[in-house]
Amino acid sequence: MSLFKIFLLTFSILLFFAAPSRADMIHLKEGRDVIGTILEEDPEALTVGVSGGKIRLRLEDVEWVIKGTPEEIQNKRRIAGFFQKAEQYFADRRYLEAAREYQKALLLEPDNADLLNNLGTCYALHGELGKAIGFYEKATQSKPDHEIAAANLSQAYLQKGMAQKAVESYQKLTARHPKESETYVGLGLAYYKSADYKSSITAYEKALSLGSGTADIYNNLASAYAMSDENEKAKESYAKALAMDPSHAHATANLNKINAGKTDDLIAAQSYDYQSTKNV
Fold first, then answer.
1. How many CA atoms does the CB half-sphere of 114 hold within 13 Å?
2. For residues 234 and 226, is the Cβ–Cβ distance under 8 A?
């Protein structure tokens, strides 16, 4: 055998033994982890090879499964630990402390869209919208179909006063989810904030047709009508808002202005509901 062939054989053997083994980590709902190799999966259970034999785990008892090298699995376990601490801080509204735990996890998995989204939500709820937008943008770049991050990003643009960015972001959401009324509610407000009142009317009417009928929506639709010089429709919509909520302060103030022949400084109702991901 030539020296070159001996070298190739030796190198191949070294690669074989150096290659990291694969494993599966099964996290059970009771909180316990099982590390082994999934040998078989049926509609009811997983058969897992572990040291000393096989065990059978019911699927209804399994919360999640991670596959990878032992190092990757160890990282996932560390991430899960940071995530659990972050969730505890988040539940107590200690958003900056939660953000620190998410940052630790992000060091181990920098492109994890769930972690990026949750960091954004911590900063959004702490009032640091610039930082929040940065993390939401990274989350949607890492995972373009991350719907929670996309919705959060749209809201953050809107709350930050970046109306045109909000319009573009909500347009993408409505294109992906044409039957979800809440995306049209956001789009309607984004158009209103960008002074495109006709488009705002269209978006709010679409939201109403899909089942979103709240006093806030009727108030904002009425304001868009008023800014489009459709005062009679505006009065009708303000009346609907007040019929649903007689104490609606914005609708009351806006209707009084319209009745007095004024359309300046109409108030659009707005609220923001930033969401986090519950697992990574």
1. 11
2. yes
> Maximum CA pair distance of the chain?
101
d(CA 160, CA 172): 19
Q: Are 45 and 54 in contact (CB under 8 A)?
A: no
pTM equals 0.79
| Cβ pair 181, 221 in contact under 8 A | no
pLDDT in tens, 17-45: 344 467 787 888 887 888 888 889 898 99
Torsion of CA 105, 108, 111, 112, to 10 degrees: -40
**Distance separating alpha carbons of residues 244 and 267, to the nearest angstrom:** 18
Label residue 1 by pLDDT band (50, 70, 90): low
Evaluate if residue 210 carries a pLDDT over 90.
yes
* C-alpha–C-alpha distance, residues 217 and 189, integer Å: 9
Taking phi over 0 as left and psi of -120 to 50 as alpha, with beta for the rest, 229 belongs to left
> Cα 182 from chain centroid?
14
Contact 24, 66 (CB under 8 A): yes
**Residue type at 226?**
A
Whole-number Å distance between alpha carbons of 73 and 193: 47
Q: Which of 60, 61, 34, 64 is nearest to 49 (CA)?
A: 34
Alpha-carbon distance of 27 to 149, in angstroms, equals 25
Q: Which two tokens stand for residue 67?
A: 């596959």
